[in-house]
Structure formats: C-alpha cells, structure tokens
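Final report, section 2: Outcomes. Of the targets proposed, Asparaginase is the one most frequently requested by collaborating groups, and we therefore present its record in full.
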Amino acid sequence: MPLVVILATGGTIAGTAAAATDTTGYRAGALGVDALIAAVPALAEHRLESESVAAIDSKNMDIATWQRLAGRVAHHVARPEVAGVVITHGTDTLEETAYFLHRVLAPSKPVMLTAAMRPASALSADGPANLLDAVTVAGTPGARGVGLVFAGALWAAVGLRKIHTLQTSAFAGSDCGPVARLEGGAMRRFRDWPAGEPLGLARIAADADAWPRVEIVLNHSGADGRLVDAAVASGAAGIVVAGTGHGTVSDRLDAALARARDAGVRVRRASRCAFGPVLPHGDGDVEAAGELSAVQARIELQLALLA
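The predicted structure is given below as tokens.
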C-alpha cells in the first residue's frame, strides 16, 4: 500500500459540540489526528502516518503556522517512500492555505487538503468521508500538486473559493470545474493535474513579523478611498482591491489607489464577484489578479513583495 502522511491543523473536521445536533456552536480543533483516523474504519486498510502541526480554528490561521506547515509538507514530500500528503484544515481560510502551498511548493506529489462543515460530534458529520476521499487521492499513482478534496470533488488550489456558510458542498473552483470527482471509492478525473513552478521555502523564511503587509479594500456604493489612504499611512506595502464586476472601482477609490501607487505601494485588482477572472487591460498590466480571489491575490502580492 502507498504511504500517506496526514498532517492535522485543527478546524471543524476536528471540532466537537455538547450535542450531536449542534453544527454551529462547536469548538474547532478539539480532537487529535489519531481520533480523526479512528473514526474512519476504512482507513485501517491504508498505510498511514500522522502528525499534528496545529490545533486551531482556521479563522486564526497566520504566517507562522503557514511556515511550519510548508516545512512539514516539504519534508514528507521529499521522502521517497511517501506517496502523498493529506492536510486536515478548517474551511474558513482553506483557500488561502491551499494557494500558499501551491505557490511555495508546487509539489510533484499530491498534497490534498480536506475539511468539514460539520463537527466530528455531529450526527451527520461530513469529515470522515472527506478524509477517506483525500487519502484515496493522495495515494493515487500519478496524482500531483495541491488540491482540495471535499464533498466528493477534487478542486485545484488556484481559484478555489468557499461559497457557502453552512452547506456541506461549500467549495467551488474556477470556470474549469473540478479536477476529478470521487464516486463509490473511485476517482473520475476530468483534466490534467495542475502544475506550477515552486518558489521554495527560502522565499518565506523571513520572520512572520517582517512579512510585508498587504491589505484588502472592497469597492462598494459610496467607496471614497479613505481606507486606502489609512492603509498607506499605517505602512501597508500592498493593497488588493476587490472591485465590482470586472474589478472596477469608483472614481474616488481609483484616485486613492493612484496616490498609493505614487507612494510606492503595490496594487492588485480582483473582484468581489464569486466567479470570473479580472483580465489585464493590456500587455503591460501586471495588476490584474486573473482568476484569483481577493484573498488569493493578497498572498500572491505578499510572495512577490518578499522577493
């Protein structure tokens, strides 16, 4: 059997509540990784190793945890006997962690994140099936790259979005749709495994407190740009604007962004829409975020500034 390493970071998948009917008032990250594995009898048929990297609610995900997680993923991927890695994670910031690992590591082996919308204590917990599917993908010959296995689908990291606050089918991806679906324990693949060029761990080696600050500003009715001015005044090195529609911004917000550029602040344009890219205005336009959401564009800008 292929060896799969499970790295736990906490989240709802490891959450517990006082009542089995409570799916919102739980404590995230309460269970250890061994308890998660024991709750899925079918995993006994797999060859596994497990390790706890963190035990947090992913709303509290931070740079230091990302650095530690990336280091552990890189360590295990480099082991020749390891077929792939599974990361259990909270759903709230999963799309950010997935994109971060994709850009920094771009692994040639599968690194599959998985999660849950209902705690482990719930009558209808969705975590066990998601974990089993993730291990299945991580042990599949030829699989590669960073992705999310969730609710029977495998999504690429780029363009990944959480789209619902409560439903168990809470994620979607780019216009290309899922990479594959898991049905009856088997995987149906629809397109090639996403690839990329790794930036490497050296890019993120700076102390977490020394990372460049990048803020996100939303365009909306009456947006006047004062938040941009405040971000620049407080030392932001970059600003991502989640624009309306195809990344458009109000005239007053646009003027504030121009002042930010003049002050040496880097700008990226994303959209507040759930789906659809923000395309460049021309060949020299490096500010368009493409299919990245605002939060993924923020990571991309941070990594660029770290260079």
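The chain has two domains: 3-189, 212-306.
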